[in-house]
Specification:
With 128 residues, the protein is mostly beta strands. It is 0% helix and 48% strand. The termini are far apart. It contains no helices and eleven strands. Strand 7 and strand 8 form a beta hairpin. The strands form two sheets. Strands 2, 4, 5, 6, 9, 10 and 11 form a seven-stranded mixed sheet that branches. Strands 1-3-8-7 form a four-stranded antiparallel sheet, with no helix packed on it.
C-alpha cells in the first residue's frame, strides 16, 4: 500500500488561495490515479478532483471547476491541489486518495469506495 501525507491546509479569507500537497511512499506512486476529496462536518466525503497516473487527464467536481487545479510531479511522488477564489463553502477536511487499481482512469470521477489508500487529511477553513 502507498502511504500518503497531506499538507498545506490552513485558514484563509474568502477569495484567497491555498495549495495542498500530498506526498506518497511505498508502492509505485506514479502507477496510480490520484484523487482529492473533502468532508465537511456532518456531511459525507465528496469527490473534488482526479488526475491520471501520468498526469495527462484531469477531472473536477462542478463545484470547484475553474477554481481548483490538480497536478502531479511523479519524480517527487507528489500531487497538488491549487485552490483559488476560495469560498466559505469550501471549508472542510481535504483528503488525497490513491485509486486501488493501477493504470485505471475513471472518466466520471473517483468514488471513495475505489480508493485504496488515504492520507490523514488537512483542514481548510475559509472565513467570510
Amino acid at each position: 500500500q502507498v502511504q500518503l501525507v497531506e499538507s498545506g491546509g490552513g485558514v484563509v479569507q474568502a477569495g484567497g488561495s491555498l495549495r495542498l500537497s500530498c506526498t506518497g511512499s511505498g508502492r509505485t506512486f506514479s502507477n496510480y490515479a490520484m484523487g482529492w476529496f473533502r468532508q465537511a462536518p456532518g456531511k459525507e466525503r465528496e469527490f473534488v478532483a482526479l488526475i491520471r497516473a501520468n498526469g495527462a487527464n484531469t477531472l473536477y467536481a462542478d463545484s470547484v471547476k475553474d477554481r481548483f487545479t490538480v497536478s502531479r510531479d511523479n519524480a517527487k511522488n507528489t500531487v497538488y491541489l491549487q485552490m483559488n477564489s476560495l469560498k466559505p463553502e469550501d471549508t472542510a477536511v481535504y483528503y488525497c486518495g490513491a485509486d486501488h487499481e493501477a493504470w485505471t482512469w475513471r472518466p466520471i470521477g473517483l468514488d471513495p469506495k475505489d480508493v485504496g489508500s488515504w492520507g490523514q487529511g488537512t483542514q481548510v477553513t475559509v472565513s467570510s
